From TrEMBL:
This is Interferon-related developmental regulator 1. Interacts with PSIP1/LEDGF. Belongs to the IFRD family. It comes from the Eukaryota. It comes from Rattus norvegicus. InterPro entries: ARM-like, ARM-type_fold, IFRD, Interferon-rel_develop_reg_C, Interferon-rel_develop_reg_N. Residues 45-342 form the Interferon-related developmental regulator N-terminal domain. Residues 387-440 form the Interferon-related developmental regulator C-terminal domain. The lineage of its organism: Eukaryota, Metazoa, Chordata, Craniata, Vertebrata. Keywords: Developmental protein, Differentiation.
Length: 446
């Protein structure tokens, strides 16, 4: 039982947030869940306080935090409470609960736990997508992606897609919905379809839905102006990237049709005044060239000269009206895109996770990795080690089994990481100072 004076003191000096945190620390009893309502009560009018006040903090430092601060049973107990809170009356509580579950599932593989509660989680996501507002819809869509990643391909994921697919499609195409919600739903729709779809007609339908969105950024036939970014541009970017991901699993016949439709229209997006759209279009073009040459080694593109000229201009862009960060990022990406288009070359990247390494040696693999990394965040490396679905996608074979002693020796304590980062920062600062001193000396000399 909670001491009344302690409760009153918490409420008097810090309000409900401190009181909720206090309950969380002492492991307070789980409260009765308020039923889901169309009329959401605000956080201030809640009649009870939650014992899960900061669910989003589950995955700040990945699975290491979970190992240090609690057992598997503790984590599952907290997750059960969070799942219950996804039906709370308060929109803020529901959103925090969705984010907490998503962060926990991103940082740890809990296949059996998720399998037993997939229907409950799907129902919660469905209700939040239908009745929630922008932030809640985004949290629900993000959780749906991670839920499918946890379950992998199979009947369970197919059922999730059948339930949520029509709702996601409706939100994506709803011009009155929040752009941010539509953007997250487009990414979620692509990820879930990539994992779960077993019906080729459903795959084609999803491609058409995403096409109907990003093609609105194409230049019209009689339009000679430069494509300008709009509030919808972020939605068009997410739709293009999701569409490109799904194209990598399409049959060759469908890929050929899509190449014929889009190969001559996509370059118009390279002139958009939004740097992220230019980069998304460039990487998509590089991937399309890779697919086309994979089907026909002697593939010929009619407008190659004009395209390479555009790519070279973007790879050496020095326009002063653009931000330095954007120019640096753009030049780096388009140097690689230009090499892919002109020389059929890809700069191999190495991803390390635990004792293993993965080599990203193609645009298809890079785009797939980037998509799942966006969904899982800092938990990507852990999932690469243990998630059988992701290991199959990247052809890594069965998970490498390591004993507890080996895993412990591989971990770097947080304090040591802090010292290492501090030393690296000091070294970089010292190097920059020396470089500046040299420039000053040269200036004085002249």
């Amino acid at each position: 039982s909670l001491n009344i004076k302690t409760r009153d003191s918490c409420l008097k000096h810090g309000g409900k947030n401190i009181f909720i945190s206090f309950l969380f620390l002492i492991g307070g009893p789980h409260r009765t869940v308020q039923p889901f309502s169309d009329e959401d009560a605000s956080i201030e009018t809640m009649s009870h306080c939650s014992g899960y006040s900061d669910p989003s903090s589950f995955a700040e430092d990945g699975p290491e935090v979970l190992d240090e601060e609690g057992t598997q049973e503790d984590l599952e107990y907290k997750l059960k409470g969070l799942i219950d809170l996804t039906l709370d009356k308060s929109a803020k509580t529901r959103q925090a609960a969705l984010e907490g579950v998503k962060n926990a599932l991103s940082s740890k593989v809990l296949y059996e736990f998720v399998l037993e509660r997939r229907m409950t989680l799907t129902d919660s996501i469905e209700r939040c997508l239908k009745k929630g507002k922008s932030d809640e819809q985004r949290a629900a869509a993000a959780l749906a992606s991670v839920l499918c990643i946890q379950l992998g391909p199979g009947l369970e994921s197919e059922e999730i897609l059948k339930t949520l697919g029509p709702i996601l499609k409706k939100i994506i195409c709803d011009g009155t919905a929040s752009i941010q919600a539509r953007q997250t739903c487009a990414t979620c729709f692509g990820v879930c379809c990539f994992i779960a779809t077993d019906d080729i007609t459903e795959l084609y339908s999803t491609l058409e839905c995403l096409e109907s969105i990003f093609t609105k950024s194409y230049l019209k036939e009689k339009d000679t102006n430069v494509p300008c970014s709009t509030p919808n541009t972020v939605l068009h970017i997410s739709s293009l990237l999701a569409w490109t991901l799904l194209l990598t699993i399409c049959p060759i016949s469908e890929v050929k049709k899509k190449l014929e439709l889009h190969f001559h229209k996509l370059p118009s997006l390279l002139s958009c005044d939004d740097v992220n759209m230019r980069i998304a279009a460039g990487e998509s073009l590089a991937l399309l060239f890779e697919l086309a040459r994979g089907m026909e080694s002697d593939f010929f593109y009619e407008d190659m000269d004009s395209l390479t000229q555009m790519l070279r201009a973007l790879a050496t862009d020095g326009n002063k009206h653009r931000a330095k960060v954007d120019k640096r990022k753009q030049r780096s990406v388009f140097r690689d895109v230009l090499r892919a288009v002109e020389e059929r070359d890809f700069p191999t990247e190495t991803v390390k996770f635990g004792p293993e390494r993965m080599y990203i040696d193609s645009w298809v693999k890079k785009h797939t990795y980037d998509t799942f990394k966006e969904a899982l965040g800092s938990g990507m490396q852990y999932h690469l080690q243990t998630n059988e679905f992701l290991r199959n996608v990247f052809e890594l074979g069965p998970p490498v089994m390591l004993d507890a002693a080996t895993l412990k020796t591989m971990k770097i304590p947080r304090f040591e990481r802090h010292l290492y980062n501090s030393a690296a920062f000091k070294a970089r600062t010292k190097a920059r100072s020396k470089c500046r001193d040299k420039r000053a000396d040269v200036g004085e000399f002249f």
